[in-house]
């Protein structure tokens, strides 16, 4: 019976993949080099990691993928790759909001004494994608509320605030005890994916899509130049 679980996290410039080869075995993680003009490197790293641990395609029970928010290209590549692997192998697919993996990593580091936080990602202009997260006794996070919130709402966020490098000053000031730096890890994504899978929260490959808080800039520019899609 397939036992291996693979995870992909490419929501940021620095990405990684992780693998638990069989139930109870340690999680192995490898960095994915940034894409270049000739290769996005992701499949090569997945192949190397699986070969190193003796995992064949037929051994995959599930694949978890960080679905954002984050970088537009990284999320598209990660989700497309996860869909292809799930479709080719028949393994389960689990979409993991990046905020849950970030909260899991913070919990592992002992940074969430009250088992709750707000993860603030994708800041731009005057708003950001804010996810209120709670963790159970085993450190498994769940989304309480998620959506775009403006700087005026920063004071109502749960503490501590966990933010990426683009955090707006207003949200930073709201973290009265300081702001925790968000860590993005395929290993944390894998662990959250396992908990979601245990609750039966699988995703149909055709329905998987990244979390984009806003319309992609390329689309906005196209519509501005070509009349908002007229003539389609």
Explain what you see:
The protein has 232 residues and is α/β, with parallel strands linked by helices. The chain folds into 2 domains: 4-98 and 184-226, Nucleotidyltransferase, domain 5 (2-Layer Sandwich), CATH 3.30.420.40; 99-181, 2-Layer Sandwich (Nucleotidyltransferase, domain 5). Helices cover 30% and strands 28% of the residues. It has 6 helices and 10 strands. The chain has helices at residues 42-52, 72-89, 98-108, 169-174, 186-198, 217-226; strands at residues 4-9, 15-20, 27-32, 60-66, 92-96, 116-124, 127-135, 141-150, 161-163, 179-181. Strands 3-2-1-4-5 form a 5-stranded mixed β-sheet, with helices on both faces. It has a 5-stranded mixed β-sheet with strand order 8-7-6-9-10. Helix 4 links the parallel strand 9 and strand 10. Helix 3 (98-108) crosses helix 5 (186-198). The longest helix is centred in the middle third of the chain and has 18 residues, at 72-89. The radius of gyration is 18 Å and the shape is globular. The relative contact order is 0.18. The model has no long low-confidence stretch (mean pLDDT 90).
